[in-house]
Amino acid sequence: MSCKSCNSGDGKPGGCRMNGTCNKSGCNKLEVYDWLANIELPNGQKPYSIVEVRFKNSRKDFYRNASDKQLQVGDVVVVDAIKGYDIGVVSVCGELAKIQVAKKRKNFKPLEAKKIIRLAEQKDIDLWIKARDKEKDLMYKSRTLALNLNLEMKISDVEYQGDLSKATFYYTAEGRVDFRQLIKDMASEFRIRIEMKQIGARQESARLGGIGSCGRELCCSTWLSDFRSVSTSAARYQQLSLNPQKLAGQCGKLKCCLNYELDMYLEGIKEFPKTDIKLKTQKGNAFHVKTDVFKKTMWYSYPGESELFSMTPTRVKEIIEMNRKGKIPANLADFEIQKEFAKEEEVGYSNVVGQDSVSRFENKFKKKKKRKKYRGKNQNKSN
C-alpha cells in the first residue's frame, strides 16, 4: 500500500518516514537507486545542474537547478510551470541525473529546461496535500458532466497542478471525442484551467493499479514503464492456447508478460525446422502436432491416428532432407526417440510399514486388552 503523505507536519517525513526514498515500491512507482551518491566529484567540477522531479503516478520531468541549491533525493521543490508553478519530489540528482537525461532525452538542451524555483515551504506542502485530496471528488463530478453530454469516454484520473490553478484529466476512448462543450462546462463548474489527455488502456491500468491473475500487483503499476505492443504470435511461439480470457489482462489487452520469455523461445525455435512441412513415409504423410522448445522434441502423427511420434529436430531434418532427395522412409517409428529415454519417471506411492492404513492401531489395542485379561485370571489363580 502506498503512503498517504511522505511529507506532513512541519516538513517532517510522515507515512513510511523515508521521505519518498523507500525501496518497497510504496511511495512512488519508479524509484531509482542512486548508486553514484557516495562517489565524490573531482576537484573543481561542479555538480550537474539538471534534476529529475517526480509528480503524481509515473510522471517525471527534468528541471534546471539555476540557483545551485543543495538538493537531495526526496526534497519537495517548487518548479516552474505554464501560467503558475507546480510541486514535485526530487527523484534523481547529481551524476545519475546525467545518465537519465542521456537515456530518456537524446536531444535535451539544458538551457531550455524549466527552472526549480525554491524548496517547498510548509504552506506549499499544505496546498499540495489539499490538491491531492480534492482530485477524487473532482473526477466523479467530471464523469457526471461527461455522461450528461453522452460522450463515449471514460475519465480515469485527475491531476491538480501544485498551485490549484489547473487540472489535467486523463481519459480513455475508442475513437475521437469532441469534448469542447465538456471543457466549457468544466471550466464554469470548477473555475480552473482544464487540460484533457487521452491515454491507452495499458496506461489506465497502470494508474489505477490492481492484482493480476498471478496473484501479484500489476507490472504496469509497479515497475513496468516500457509498454511494448503484444501480439498473438507471442502466444503461438510459446505454444499457448489462444484463449482470450486467459491471455488478456485487466486492461482488456494481451498481457505484457507474454513478451518476457519470448526472446528465449525465438532463440530456441531457430534450431527447429518449419512446422508446416509434412513428412513423407511409406505409411503416409505425417503432420506436426506440437513442439517442446526446452526439451527439443517435436511430435508428429498420421491422419486419423492418435499415436504420436516424438523426434528430435535433427532427426526431423534428416527426414526432410531424405524427402527432398526422393527417398521415402518406411515409418516414423525408426526415427523416434527411444521409449526408455522419452518416458519420464513416474513418481509412485509406496506404503511405508503399513502407515497408510486407518485401522493400523486396532490390532495393537486388542492385544493389549487380551493381555490384561490374562494377567487378571493368573492373579486370581495364584491367590
Describe the structure.
With 383 residues, the chain is of the alpha+beta class. It folds into four domains: 1-120, no CATH class; 128-199, GMP Synthetase, Chain A, domain 3, CATH 3.30.300; 205-268, no CATH class; 279-342, no CATH class. The chain contains eleven helices and twelve strands. It has helices at residues 95-104, 122-148, 180-190, 201-208, 219-222, 232-237, 244-247, 262-269, 313-324, 339-342, 362-382; strands at residues 50-54, 60-64, 76-81, 84-92, 116-119, 154-160, 166-172, 193-198, 279-280, 285-292, 297-301, 309-311. The strands form three sheets. A five-stranded antiparallel beta sheet has the order 2-1-4-3-5. A hairpin with a 7-residue loop joins β11 (297-301) and β12. α2 (122-148) packs across α3. The radius of gyration is 34 Å and the shape is elongated. The N and C termini lie far apart (80 Å). Residues 1-15 and 17-26 have low confidence and may be disordered.
